[in-house]
């Protein structure tokens, strides 16, 4: 929760640094938001964001040859990936390379023994792919593009294609894909976890992350 609060604080501060971060959602300020006119100078806002990162660095332990973990949630593997993308995004938005070495060293730790970033949940690999995309945009290192492509290839295997919908089946699954669900076709949906042949859990995080990778790669 602390981490999420910090992420929101960092993103809000950054958003005001840059005016508007391009996103696919409706960025019109909702009328019920209060005091949205930010008068704090840009330099102060950047400083606030940097300060917000510090507790997260303090929480990030166990950077070993094959892992990075948060102290308060060691087995959870996707959260560190979300932190890498915030660092890279911060550098990109502020036109700096402050965290370049850190991001590179974190990625190297994780990728050493886990080059496609697979984890307990399928969306974990896609979190790292999305982080790699942000890092590539911020630092231009082609290695990150490779990481993003690896992640894409992984996500592709767990994403329902139009042909699967037409056939009514997905490789390895034993249930019938309906032609339509309540909001439209299931094509483009990405599975959340490799649970077995009766797994029908497709979630927004996996689907959204894979969709961003598909557009970028
Ligand atoms: C975006 O949000 C604003 C404010 O809530 C609303 O007035 C507007 O209709 C929304 N636009 C779309 C395309 O949903
Ligand atoms: C917004 O700013 C006004 C004037 O400074 C203040 O009285 C009010 O408490 C603020 N509202 C919030 C939600 O911070
Ligand atoms: C760090 O990793 C070591 C070895 O895997 C483990 O024994 C230890 O509990 C970890 N520490 C934390 C704080 O997660
Ligand atoms: C970013 O920094 C570089 C090198 O200092 C400069 O050439 C470029 O104009 C800057 N871009 C922005 C968007 O500030
Ligand atoms: C994707 O599936 C193909 C065909 O089953 C397999 O050869 C490939 O190794 C898989 N790729 C990843 C990254 O899982
Ligand atoms: C699908 O496989 C699961 C085991 O993974 C099994 O429990 C279930 O009965 C199977 N369903 C059908 C329709 O074959």
TrEMBL record:
The keyword Membrane does not apply. One of its GO terms (biological process) is carbohydrate metabolic process. Keywords: Signal. SUPFAM superfamilies: Six-hairpin glycosidases. InterPro entries: 6-hairpin_glycosidase_sf. Residues 1-22 form the signal peptide. This is Six-hairpin glycosidase. It comes from Gymnopus androsaceus JB14. The lineage of its organism: Eukaryota, Fungi, Dikarya, Basidiomycota, Agaricomycotina.
């Amino acid at each position: 929760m602390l981490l999420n609060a910090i992420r929101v604080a960092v993103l809000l501060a950054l958003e005001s640094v840059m005016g508007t971060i391009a996103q696919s959602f409706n960025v019109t300020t909702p009328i019920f938001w209060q005091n949205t006119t930010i008068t704090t100078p840009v330099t102060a806002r950047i400083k606030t964001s940097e300060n917000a990162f510090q507790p997260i660095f303090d929480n990030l332990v166990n950077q070993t040859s094959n892992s990075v973990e948060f102290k308060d949630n060691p087995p959870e593997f996707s959260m560190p990936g979300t932190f890498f993308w915030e660092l890279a995004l911060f550098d990109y938005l502020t036109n700096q390379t402050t965290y370049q070495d850190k991001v590179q060293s974190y990625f190297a730790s994780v990728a050493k023994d886990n080059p496609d970033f697979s984890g307990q949940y399928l969306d974990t690999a896609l979190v790292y792919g999305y982080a790699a995309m942000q890092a590539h945009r911020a630092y231009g290192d082609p290695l990150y593009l490779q990481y993003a492509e690896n992640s894409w290839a992984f996500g592709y295997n767990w994403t329902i294609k139009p042909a699967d919908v037409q056939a009514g089946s997905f490789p390895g699954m034993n249930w019938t894909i309906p032609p339509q669900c309540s909001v439209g076709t299931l094509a483009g949906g990405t599975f959340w976890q490799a649970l077995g042949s009766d797994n029908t859990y497709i979630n927004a995080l996996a689907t959204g992350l894979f969709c961003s990778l598909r557009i970028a790669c």
